[in-house]
Amino acid sequence: MGKKDLVEQYIRGLSITPKLFPSYTDDNKTLNSSMSEFLLKNMELLNSYDFGQLPLSSILLFEKLLYWKWWGDNKHDEQEFMVNLIKEEVEHRLSGYKYSLDGSLLKFFTLKLTEGQGNQYLRIVNDKDFKKEFKFALLNHLNRNQLTLDTYLDGIADELKKYDSVTIGIYEKELIKKEVEKIIFENYLSLE
Fold first, then answer.
1. Is 10 exposed, middle or buried (0-12, 13-18, 19+ CB in 10 A)?
2. Which strand (E) or helix (H) includes residue 87?
3. In angstroms, what is the C-alpha Rg of the chain?
4. 107-126: per-residue pLDDT in tens?
5. How many domains in the chain?
6. At what angle do helices 170-181 and 149-160 cross, to 10 degrees?
7. Which residues on neighbouring strands pair with residue 87, listed in sequence order?
8. What are the start-end ranges of the H helices in 48-169?
9. CA 4, CA 7: separation in Å to the nearest integer?
10. Burial letters for 144-157: b for 16+ Cβ neighbours within 10 Å, e otherwise?
């Protein structure tokens, strides 16, 4: 097993055994501390496709781990890491960026559409190119899986039900639905 596989398995393990790998521990003598330090040094080995193949709960718990590890660190930011993960530089575009929203990363950024998620997320979800690619990726996902927006959001809520720290409530789900509808319907003509 190489470093990349170990990083991927550790992130996957965050949701499989969350009590074994709590994101908030600062005890430097535990296996969790050693593994999380290994993760921080090697997480760039995974690209956006690799993250998209992980369970949504693992990505959300990974984000929490980054928050706890980087809290108070002016050089690192978990939101910036997640945004940069989906940003790909493209020379032939005016903005210079394309966004990779595959698998669980589409669900992750669906959850980040509402206000109050943080400045980095607010900036990206208001970006015209992001909205266009999010709309395309989401509509493609809904069509391919024969889902309505409600069943898509219900599926996300069900997927997160057993993780207290990352669940979404009814009110939050409605706010997310309104934001998604704005991107799909209100901006329909301007994004085409």
1. buried
2. strand 87-89
3. 17
4. 999 999 987 777 888 888 88
5. 1
6. 140
7. 99
8. 48-52, 56-70, 78-86, 104-111, 119-125, 128-144, 149-160
9. 5
10. eeeeebeebbeebb
What SS3 state is found at 88? strand
* pLDDT tens, residue by residue, 18-66: 666 555 555 555 556 677 788 888 888 898 999 999 999 999 988 988 8
Q: Which two tokens stand for residue 164?
A: 């207290």
State the Cα torsion 4-20-79-102 to the nearest 10°: 50
Closest CA to 120 of 89, 155, 76: 76
Range of the domain at 26: 3-191
Alpha-carbon distances of 151 from 6, 37, 59, rounded to whole Å: 34, 38, 21
Residue indicated by tokens 């990974």: 62
The pLDDT, as a whole number, for residue 186 is 67
Q: CA 102 → CA 46, 52, 91, distances in Å?
A: 14, 5, 21
